[in-house]
Design a protein that fits this description.
Heat Shock Protein 90, 20 helices, globular, alpha+beta, five-stranded antiparallel beta sheet
């Protein structure tokens, strides 16, 4: 029996759309707020929101710092079948997010004048910016805490709930914007209140969804460990660094583009920035969907599974990014008309589309290195992708008198070339292990034949053949033939019970993994369907439960978790 990508492909694509919607939610909210403010208030109000954006970006940076770090650590813990540790990281994230939110509230109460003076260069807008900043900081706990359900609903296998949560945020933002701006006529304060309340309702609804009795990440009071906080910030540092570098990059590029192309260039640059916001659902959504899967498969030392995930991620991402690039080029004329531009826009749009394709590859690999504990490399990629390569490319193009917007694809292409160079160097310097050149994986178990993974369909015939393969593998690796036969028959019954009770259809995919290492035989079974732990079942009258009782007697370790909508069973002998 051979392995195929159907199981992982189903899991990845099932989670992709909800995650993309969650990424798009914040972007759409910003567009909605800008549209209402533009139509109801004067241009000064829209400028006030623009001046206030650094405060919002800082809150997003803190939320990403905690959210990415905690979710990676929880997914790695689930890969080790350590539910307690996964839940502990979740509790730690909730606690530190709440503490950070309280700190920002106090900053808003006592330092809103100082903060406003730092970010607002126009004294005539000071009052409006202060009002917007003050309301935003009062709502900061919700802006930070919303990342908890955003990441952990996916880990709990509740992708549809995640989508519903984001839809609620978008709809309530529209309603509150209309109510506060048109009915109550609260001006800029109303716009800020609309954003805070829509995020708050969405956040609270997400937490309610997580309290489901079958949910893994329900709220509980627990001890906050400093070591957990340090680890969360360590793994979240890549995402936080990206948010920080985005601010620096925007500031420098504004200067370079203005020097190179004047106000006409700045108008085009403003349009490209607005359109690039829509690409975030691809650039962030595609890698984010894979994070929990990569965490689980990496801690399970399933290198072949990791490669399958990356291939699925790459194919899906390139299709989406390619479609985005084509749409930009095809609709260049309507875009030019909509934004009332006088100069040509086709080349800048082509540059933006191409840059998204190459940036997506950088983003996927950077996210992969972060999950697999290559945090230094991930941070280097982030620095090259967001800051060094784009700024250096833009400066050189400006000096050469070429179209400066070529920096968009050129910077990403240079970053793509940097990644294999640095990974090859890392693999060459590691003398203890023979690591693969790009992904830096230790494939020694696969090369020695000590592990075998295969895919089956959940029919009785396929389960029977799978048990025969397991028996043969165990015998080939020096297990007593009689014990190997007992084990194979018992596992056949276990797989049959799991398939039946998790309500699998005969054509539903199941992944089976068997390995032999240092005298230990391990079996792993993964399938979709309803949550079902065979080792906690009390149905002793069922004749198929005899196999489970046999496994309980002869096994050394038995672990079961239900995450990402999957039953994951692991047994060691």
């Amino acid at each position: 029996m051979e392995r195929n990508s159907r199981f992982l492909s189903n899991e990845y694509h099932r989670a992709l759309i909800p995650v993309m919607i969650s990424v798009l939610g914040g972007t759409i909210n910003a567009i909605i707020d800008s549209a209402f403010v533009t139509r109801r208030l004067d241009s000064g109000a829209l400028a006030a929101i623009t001046y206030s954006m650094p405060v919002f970006l800082v809150l997003c940076m803190i939320g990403c710092l905690f959210g990415v770090g905690a979710s990676i650590l929880s997914s790695r813990a689930l890969g080790e079948h350590d539910v307690e540790k996964a839940v502990r990281y979740h509790h730690s994230m909730v606690a530190i997010s709440l503490i950070a939110g309280i700190v920002f509230i106090l900053a808003g109460i006592f330092f809103s004048d100082l903060i406003t003076s730092l970010i607002c260069a126009d004294s005539t807008l000071f009052s409006q910016v202060k009002d917007y900043v003050f309301i935003t900081l009062l709502g900061s706990p919700f802006y930070i805490l919303i990342y908890v359900p955003t990441y952990y609903l996916q880990l709990d296998g509740k992708g549809k709930s995640l989508s519903f949560m984001m839809i609620i945020m978008i709809i309530t933002d529209i309603l509150f914007d209309y109510l506060f701006l048109y009915v109550a006529d609260l001006g800029i304060t109303g716009a800020s209140l609309a954003s805070v309340l829509s995020v708050a309702l969405s956040c609270l609804f997400g937490f309610v969804l997580m309290q489901d009795r079958n949910g893994m990440f329900r709220l509980k009071i627990g001890k906050l460990k400093i070591f957990d906080i340090v680890n969360i910030m360590k793994f979240g540092s890549v995402s936080a660094l990206g948010n920080l570098l985005d601010v620096i990059r925007l500031y420098v590029l504004n200067y370079l583009i203005y020097r190179s192309s004047g106000m006409e260039g700045m108008k085009v640059w403003a349009v490209l920035n607005a359109l690039s916001e829509l690409s975030l659902c691809i650039l962030a959504g595609v890698p984010r969907t894979a994070i929990p899967l990569l965490g689980i498969y990496h801690t399970g030392h399933d290198n072949e599974g990791i490669r399958f995930i990356l291939k699925i991620e790459m194919k899906t991402g390139l299709v989406l990014a390619g479609a985005y690039a084509v749409l930009l080029a095809v609709f260049n004329a309507p875009i030019k008309t909509f934004y009332k531009l006088d100069g040509p826009i086709l080349l800048p749009l082509i540059c933006l589309g191409l840059s998204v394709i190459f940036e997506l590859m950088c983003s996927m690999l950077g996210s992969y290195y972060n999950v697999t504990r290559r945090i230094v490399i991930a941070n280097m990629i982030m620095m090259m992708r967001i800051l060094i390569c784009p700024l250096l490319s833009a400066w050189l193009l400006m000096k050469a008198g070429m179209d400066i917007f070529l920096f968009l694809p050129v910077g990403m292409i240079v970053t793509c070339l940097f990644i294999p160079a640095v990974s090859y160097l890392k693999a060459s310097l590691d003398k203890e292990k023979k690591l693969s050149k790009l992904l830096l994986l230790d494939d020694s178990m696969e090369k020695d034949g000590r592990v075998k993974t295969f895919s089956i369909l959940a029919s009785d015939d396929n389960i029977c053949r799978a048990s025969e393969d397991i028996t043969e593998f165990c015998t080939d690796h020096d297990m007593d033939p009689k014990l190997a036969m007992k084990l194979g028959l018992s596992l056949e019954e276990v797989m049959t019970v799991v398939a039946r009770n998790s309500l699998l259809k005969e054509d539903d995919p199941v992944e089976v993994r068997v390995y032999a290492y240092n005298g230990v035989f391990g079996i792993g079974i993964m399938c979709f369907g309803k949550k079902y732990d065979p080792f906690r079942s009390s149905d002793d009258e069922d004749e198929l439960m005899m196999g489970i009782r046999m496994i309980e007697k002869i096994s050394k370790n038995r672990k079961y978790i239900y995450t990402l909508g999957m039953n994951i069973l692991s047994v060691e002998f």
